[in-house]
Amino acid sequence: MRDCEFKDDPDFAVSIVAYEWIQKQMKETGFRETVIEKVTWDEEHNITDEVKRIHPVINDDLPY
Question: The whole model's pTM is what?
């Protein structure tokens, strides 16, 4: 993550990193059902809702 992204909105920037880490864990465990209960950073910032709202952006360049 770049410093400017963190300075602009630290919770969102860290949420992206947390989401990517969760996706990596899911891939390593065979995409088992995963429930996100609580996500925090720096032991005081609860970003659980932000992480749950993140969805991958898929570029659809198909002509149809």
Answer: 0.76
Alpha carbons 2 and 34: distance in angstroms, whole number: 28
Unique residue bearing structure tokens 């969102």: 12
CA distances from 16 to 2, 19, 40, 49, 63 (A): 12, 5, 12, 12, 30
Helix (H) or strand (E) segment spanning residue 6: helix 3-8
Domain boundaries, the chain: 3-53
| pLDDT tens track for 11-31 | 999 999 999 999 999 999 998
DSSP codes joined into one string, 29-51: TTS--------EETTTEE-HHHH
